[in-house]
Design a protein that fits this description.
The chain folds into 2 domains: about 15-145, Rossmann fold (3-Layer(aba) Sandwich), CATH 3.40.50.720; about 145-320, N-(1-d-carboxylethyl)-l-norvaline Dehydrogenase, domain 2, CATH 1.10.1040.10. Helices cover about 50% and strands about 10% of the residues. It contains 14 helices and 5 strands. Helix 2 links the parallel strand 1 and strand 2. Helix 5 runs antiparallel to helix 7, helix 5 crosses helix 12 and helix 12 crosses helix 14 (about 310-320). It is globular, with a radius of gyration of 22 Å. It starts with 13 loop residues before the first helix and ends in an 11-residue tail after the last helix.
Length: about 325
Amino acid sequence: MTIAPVRAVAVEARERVVAELASAAFACTAVGVAALDAIAPLLAAAASRRRQAGAPPLAVFLCENELACAERVRAALRPHLAAEGDGDLLVLIETVVHRMVPPVSAEERAADPLLAVAEDWPTLVADRQAGAPLPAVAGVEYVDDFRGHFERKLYVHNMAHAVVAYLGYVAGYRTIDAAMGDPEIARTARAAMAEASEALRRKYGWSRAAIDPWVTDLERRFRNADLGDPVERVGRDPLRKLRPEDRLIGAANLCLAHGVVPQAIVRGIAAAFRFDPPEERAAAELQAALRCDGIERFLADWCRLPPGSELARWIEAAAAEMGVGDGEAPRA
């Protein structure tokens, strides 16, 4: 598919960027959470210009996959707002981006610098509680239980993607779809998604009909060979993925909080400890921590799992089965 016509304005051309924002029907960010502070002055200047022109508020879709990033942007905006009320001219809408976009090869990039490869996922979930106006945009689905949808993405989609990546890496597969062709990895991914989905269903009162078809389709998407998504790309930065509230430990804790045993998720966590591709700095830091401190200390200090806790014991046992650390057989 070719998207045209398009214009591009370099962010360094500040006045041109502000002019575009001042006249836009809506705007989207996809700059990474760390860069949101840097674009706040541009948004503030655009709000001032819209006020001067008597223009309506600008809806800004924050496509950063980060809870509470709207509050972060509001805080970054405050020092730059020219007049009281300018902040009301920016409606900051948090979103959940589901579409998978793997990198293109160097050869493809050389042939077409604008080429982007993405799957055919058609929906952008957005927070209906963000304020008004909420623009009617094709493909945008406004939801009231935004946090639930965010957790579904993080604790089902992102979690299972990471599980497949780490198990696939250990098994020697290069891409996610190839790893999903391994019956054992596919079974583990399916079980992990079922565990997290059941926990979310209990937490939010969702029906199985509301979540099961989405999970089934997610497995289909992981098997998409056209994406050719490398396991090393999906698994990169394991330290971030092993944080207490991120996709792996967070999903396991969610399960325990709602009476679900995260057996398959634990296996994926254990596989993360085997992730050591060359030139992956975070993976090297993880391996160094495991060598220096051991898995029990790592789980306590980094994952905030007390030594001897149920989840810590299960992870240590699963890791021992994969040749990492020591542990006993897990007891569910």
